[in-house]
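Supplementary Methods, section 5.1.

A reviewer requested that the exact input to the structure prediction be made available. We therefore reproduce it here, unchanged from the version used in the analyses.
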Amino acid sequence: MNKTRNRAILIFVLICLLPVTQANPEAQSSKTWDIKIDYSGEWRALVESDNSDRRGYGPETITTYAASESATVRKLDDNSKELCVELWADGELVDSECTSSAYGEVAVGKGGGTGDPSVPFSDVSGFEFMTAILAMMASVFYLQKKRF
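The structure derived from this sequence is encoded cell-by-cell as follows.
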C-alpha cells in the first residue's frame, strides 16, 4: 500500500513538472538585439550569438535574437575617423564604445566572462529543466526517507 502511494505521488510530481520540462528555454529567453555601427568607412563585425563574421561599409544596424549578445567591430582602413558601436536590447541601450585609432577595434556587450548581469537566471537556457530535475530528485529522496 505504501509503495503504491509513493508511486502515485511520484507520478503526480512528474505530471506537474511536465509542462516545465517541455518548454523551449531558447524561445523564452530570446531578446531583440540591435548592434548599431556608426562609421563612414569599411568595417568588419564579429557577432557572438550567431557566430557570424560580417563586413560592411558605412552606418548599419545588425539585428539578432538571442538570450545575450556581444560584438567586436574593427575598422578596415587606416584613418582617424571615429567608429562608434552601440548595443541595444529590446530598445534599451546596453553598451556603447568608440575609437578613432587607425584599424581601431571596439567590443560591446563583453562582460569580462562573467555573463550578462541583465539576464536573470530564469532566462538562462535550461534553467527550467534543471529546476524540474532538482525538484524531482528532492521528491524521490523525501519519499525514500519517509519509507524507512
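Strands lie at 31-38, 42-47, 52-57, 60-66, 71-75, 83-89, 92-99, 105-108. These observations are discussed further in the main text.
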